[in-house]
Write a structure and sequence with these properties.
Strand content: under 5%
Number of helices: 10
Order of helices and strands: HHHHHHHHHH
Number of strands: 0
Mean pLDDT: 89
Structural class: mainly alpha
Largest sheet: none
Number of domains: 2
Bound molecules: zinc ion
Helix content: over 70%
Shape: globular
Length: 301
């Protein structure tokens, strides 16, 4: 059955690309939910934990008024308009098309729906297609798609909240190590050393910066994200990703400062630049390293 599907996909690349694109758009729609809800779920968990901790600490004091916590996860409650509460129907949930048909407005109250939703869907579709074109109809493609989707969610969550949730970074890290163990990616030794080198590279930058300036330039989520790329691409790629992320970061920071006209102490998340740089390295890292060696290194030697 699975082999038949693979055979069809190999013989008809257009079907394969089409399927991946449509699937990517649908996943993009789901990622919108993750990007919006995961930080809220995390915050609710922290509040709960703090309450429990304080209730234990202050036994003689009355705990805060207990209210039955409402179920809130990725599937419950159903998506609704934040203004009028209109529940979004299945027809209104078709990636991109629904937004265009509704002309970016809620069908209940005409409250504008952010253009970011269709853009995230479009981006997920486009990046999924790029992965499919790069690796073709193989098992590896599916794994790299999972990595890509995780990175999209992380990028937008970090932009919104300055958080890189463990709920996404850690599974991506384990998956990267497993892919190497399964023999589908780089050698396992490169992956394990890569995860350590990735984590420690930014960890040392963080502590160097903190000892020198007393400021915190990034967070622990950033170290974990570098570990993810170390595990997927190997320790050899860590330096390239660091270099690329500073480039991407510099471009974004200049653009953001220019657009917002904020002071130079504006907090800017670092995670999105690592994610973008890492994804570029995933697709084109080998050719970039090769190009460098061919054109600069070997000539110098
Ligand atoms: Zn509405």
């Amino acid at each position: 059955m699975f082999d038949d599907i693979i055979a069809v996909m190999v013989n008809h690349p257009t079907y394969f690309y089409g399927t991946v694109l449509v699937f990517g758009l649908i996943i993009g729609s789901f990622l919108n939910v993750v990007i919006h809800r995961l930080p809220i779920m995390m915050e609710k968990d922290w509040v709960c934990e703090c309450r429990e901790y304080l209730a234990k600490e202050l036994v003689d004091k009355k705990p805060a008024e207990e209210t039955e916590p409402q179920v809130y996860n990725l599937s419950v409650p159903r998506s609704a308009c934040p203004k009028c509460g209109h529940k979004i129907t299945a027809l209104e949930n078709i990636p991109i098309i629904s937004w265009l048909v509704l002309r970016g407005k809620c069908s209940g109250c005409a409250n504008p729906i952010s253009i970011r939703y269709p853009l995230v869907e479009l981006l997920t579709g486009a990046l999924s297609l790029a992965v499919a074109i790069n690796w073709g109809p193989t098992q590896v493609t599916l794994l790299y798609l999972v990595l890509t989707w995780g990175l999209i969610a992380l990028t937008f969550i970090d932009f919104d909240t300055m958080l890189l949730p463990d709920e996404i970074t850690l599974p991506l890290l384990w998956l990267g190590l497993l892919v190497a163990v399964w023999g589908l990616g780089i050698p396992p030794t490169d992956a394990i050393v890569g995860a350590c080198v990735g984590y420690l590279s930014l960890w040392s930058v963080y502590w160097g910066f903190k000892l020198a300036t007393g400021k915190e330039g990034m967070g622990y989520g950033d170290f974990k994200l570098m570990a993810v790329f170390g595990a997927w691409l190997g320790w050899q790629s860590v330096f390239l990703i660091l270099l690329l992320s500073s480039f991407v970061g510099a471009i974004f920071v200049i653009a953001i400062l220019y657009a917002q006209k904020k002071g130079k102490n504006t907090q800017v998340p670092f995670g999105p630049y690592i994610a973008i740089a890492g994804w570029i390295a995933l697709l084109w890292g080998d050719s970039m390293i090769e190009f460098y060696l061919q054109n600069y290194f070997y000539q110098a030697v």
